[in-house]
């Protein structure tokens, strides 16, 4: 059963959004709670590749490892995020073409640990809010990079893109 699902229309093509997902070192830019990307396997996001990150708020941090469990470029990426002693969760990302844009779906559910016993509205709500913040950040980055790429192709200078 899915614990939290978020959807976001991103005003960039699936290939542009996929390019962001393929750069493991950029996850800290859009994954809420990530303080630092510690390491990304050079073959990210192939199945089995790992991404090590430091997550938390302020001085309360822990090191997390994400492992790619499924990868179908440029439409599907599934990760297993392990944050011991808290367990692990599955994060499934899907990118669907929506005209020239991308409908991005993010599903999250616990696999092991305390989260498997804490299913319910309060936890679902907190996770959905966090994931919504992530998708907003991802969308802003993708739109900004789309605008810069378009400007470079047309020779127009971009001063400030939100």
From TrEMBL:
InterPro entries: ASHA1/2-like_C (IPR013538), START-like_dom_sf (IPR023393). CDD domains: SRPBCC (cd07812). Coiled coil: none annotated. It comes from the Bacteria. Residues 13-114 form the Activator of Hsp90 ATPase homologue 1/2-like C-terminal domain. Gene3D superfamilies: 3.30.530.20. Belongs to the AHA1 family. This is Activator of Hsp90 ATPase homologue 1/2-like C-terminal domain-containing protein.
């Amino acid at each position: 059963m899915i614990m939290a699902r978020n959807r976001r229309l991103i005003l960039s093509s699936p290939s542009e959004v996929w390019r962001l997902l393929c750069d493991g070192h950029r996850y800290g830019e859009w994954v809420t709670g990530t303080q630092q990307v510690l390491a990304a396997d050079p073959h990210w996001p192939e199945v089995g590749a790992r991404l090590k990150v430091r997550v938390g708020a302020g001085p309360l941090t822990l090191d997390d490892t994400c492992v790619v469990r499924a990868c179908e470029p440029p439409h599907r990426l599934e990760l297993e995020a392990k944050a011991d002693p808290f367990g692990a969760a599955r994060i499934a990302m899907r990118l669907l073409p929506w005209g020239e844009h991308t409908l991005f779906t993010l599903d999250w559910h616990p696999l092991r640990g305390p989260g498997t016993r804490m299913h319910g509205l309060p936890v679902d709500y907190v996770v959905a809010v966090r994931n919504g913040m992530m998708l907003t950040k991802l969308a802003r980055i993708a739109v900004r990079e789309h605008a810069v790429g378009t400007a470079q192709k047309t020779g127009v200078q971009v001063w400030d893109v939100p």
